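TL;DR need structure tokens for one chain.
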Amino acid sequence: MDKSWQVVIIYVLTHLGLIFFLYPADIIGSTEEAHWIPVTIGVILHIAVVSLYMRGLAFFPGKNIIEIYTRSGNVLKVVFLLPIFAYFIMAIIITLRAYSEIITIVFLTNTPLWAIMLLFLVITCFLAMKGVETILRTGVLIAFLFLPLIFFVMIYSFQNVDWNYIFPIWNDDFSFIKNQIYLNSFFAIGGGFLFLGFVQPYFTFQRKKVLLGIAFVIPCFFLSVYVPLLTYGQATASTFFFPFVMTLDAINITWLMFDRVTIFFLLSLITFIMLFLSLVMWKAVKIANAFLPFAKHSYLVLFFSTIIYLICLWIPNWSDVEKLFSWNTLLRFYVLITVPLSLYCLGMWSKRRGRHHEV
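>> reply
TL;DR here they are.
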């Protein structure tokens, strides 16, 4: 059954949740001018890997990446699926701990961190147990409720911009490429597209429609960085943990009955992140089932959720969260580059082998 628009909605929502929180601070902190250059590099890489990923999947209609790697032999199954599983678990830990910290900093200062993380995990567990169909249907409902609010806030975020801050628009120094802060920004670049390789046994999607989702997300990468820069300038924006959120705090809408637009924007993004967490948990458990076929899906969800929660409780402060981002860099780029490339190569090899058998 074709569920292209549901897949596109999930793609858009998960990326919006990843982009508007941590991504602006990483880009703004990585260079002092011409920020469009690091953003463009990341966007080009994102388009390239997602396109290659979908082309690789197209060689195996109706199969997910677990079936593809399993059919290709135990060596490839271990070499690719285990790192993907480790990346998913790390992504859940980092996202859960980081975004719980964000909530306590921004608007729930008196709520204990353990309670916020527990709430996140309870919702994540519930959706992951229900399966990808429930996650996608929930995504459609969330999009209907919150995307209009996101559009509204993004339009009004330009209220205080000063276009003089856009200069200089060129920078000959590309040393930011090896800056760890810039490498951390690829968490948003490569964090949300792998689910495209897990949904095919349940329903299909059209690549052209996913490309429309990419076209929608790309401007958000630039907006999340340049709206704070054009509002505060590089010197001030670089001091903020969450530049885009701070920009929204400066918005003044006289006809709106609510004082802070920020809270509604944050709540929207938090629902997107809950969707992202449940999707990643579901994918991680599907991989675990490939190695432990005797284990029940729901038991694995509960087991991994408990382990993740204990690890998150063990992380004491924000500096340790930043260390996790650094430790995850090699694994992030390994999955980001090798998985799409390997699927494409396996697809080409399978196609040539099919032609050889026909001859």
